[in-house]
Amino acid sequence: MPDIKFIIENKDIVQNGLNKKGYRKEDLDIDALIELYKKIAALKTSSQALAEEKNKLSAQIKSASNEERPSIIAKSKALGEEFKAKEEELSKFQEEFDLMMLKFPNLPSNDAPLGKDDSENVVVRYVGDKPDFDFEVKDHIELMDLNDWAEMERIAKVSGTRTYAIKNDLAKLELAMHMFVIDKLRSHGFQVITVPSISKEKPLYGQGYLPFSRDEIYYMPQDDIYLSGTAELILNSLRADEILSENELPILYAGFSPCFRREAGAAGKDTRGLVRVHQFMKTEQFVICKNDISESEKWHKKLLEISEEILKDFELPYRVVDICTGDMGAPKYRQYDLETWVPSQNCYRETHSCSNITDWQARRTNLRYRANADGKVKFVHTLNNTGIATPRALVPFIENHQNADGTVNIPEKLQPYMGGVKKIGKNA
After folding, report:
1. Domain count, the chain
2. 353, 355, 364, 368: which one is catalytic?
3. Which one from 261, 334, 363, 364 is the annotated catalytic residue?
4. Has 353 been annotated as catalytic?
5. Which of 220, 332, 350, 414 gives 20 to 30 Å between its CA and that of 292?
6. Domain CATH for 47
7. Catalytic pick among 162, 364, 368, 392
8. Active-site residue identified among 69, 96, 350, 370
9. CA 60/CA 179 separation, integer angstroms
10. Are residues 379 and 334 in the same domain?
11. Is 276 annotated in the active site?
C-alpha cells in the first residue's frame, strides 16, 4: 500500500494511477480516504488532550481538600467516559481506514502499456522458432497416454478433478527441470530455500492475496491456516518487521514449495490435463533490494533474463509480453509475462510472470533497511518471478520436443539431469 502522506500530497497523480488500473470511485474513493485520515488525526489530538487533562486531575486528587475532592473525582470520571467514547470512535475509524489502505493498489509505472484487460497486453518480442512437424501433432494428454506417463483418471477418483499423478520418465523430467532451475539460480547468486505451503492469515495481506483474492485460496478453519499459492507468499513475510542493514541487500531467494490454488475464477477453462491444476510444484525467484526505482528496475530486467535463459536452455519458443495496467493486478508496478508455444493449441501460454512490486509489499509487512549514506530507515523493494512451475511447463516441453513415434527429445543442457538420456518414451 502507498504512503497516506504521498496520497494527500499527490492526489491527482494517485487518481490517475487508479484510473489506469481500472479503479472507479465506488471501488476506492480517495476523497473519502483523506477525510477519514483527517478525522482520525483530529480524534487522536482531542483524545490526547483529554488524557492529559485527566492525568492532571488525578494528580490533584491527592492534595485536594475533603471538600474539593468529590468535584475533582466527578470531573475526572466524566473526562474518562468522554475519552473512552472517543477511543471507541477512533478504533472504528481506524479499522475502516486500515481496510481502505489494504485495498489500495500499487500505482503502475508510466512505462507500462495502458489498457483495460489482457487483450491490450503488448508483445515485446518473439524468441525461438516454432517446431515444423511433418506428422500429426499429439497433445500432452495423448503423449502421456501413449507412454504410460500418468494416472489422470485414477487420481481423479481419489483426489477429484484438476489433480494429477504423473509417473515414470515424466515424473523424473518434472524433478529434473526443478533441479536444473535451482542450479541455474544458484549460479546467479540465489539462496536456495524450501518453504512450507501453509500460512497464517497476516502474510496473505502482506503479499497481496488478501483482501483481493480470497476465493482463490484454500482455508482450513479448524487450524485457522491457509494453503500457499506460491513461495513468494512465505518469502515476503520471512523478514517481516525487521530493519535490515543496507549491506545485506540485495537478498536473493530461490524458493521451492508445493503450491495450492482453488482456480475458482477459471470454471470451464483447461479442465483436462496439466495446464490448470489445484496443486503444483514451483521454484520461485524472489528479490529484496534497496528502495531505489533504478535498482528494482535493474533486478526486474535481471529476473526476466534468467527466465529467458531457462526457456532457451530448454529449447522452447516463447514470447515476452508487457502486461497492461488493467491486467497486472493490485500489487504490481510493472509486469512481464513469458508465454511459451503450445503446438496442439496453436498458441502461446503463460509459463512465467515477472513483477516489480516496489515498496508496496514491504509497507504491508513493515520490512525496512537502514541506508548507509544518511542512516535513514526506508522500506525495501520486492520483486518476484517464476523460476519454473510444473506441471504447467511440462505441456509445452513435451509437445514441442515430440517425435512421430511419441517419444520426446531431451535438450542437451537438461540431459545430465535425466541420467544422460537424449530421448524418453516407450519407443526411446
Report:
1. 2
2. 353
3. 261
4. yes
5. 350
6. 1.10.287.40
7. 392
8. 350
9. 73
10. yes
11. yes
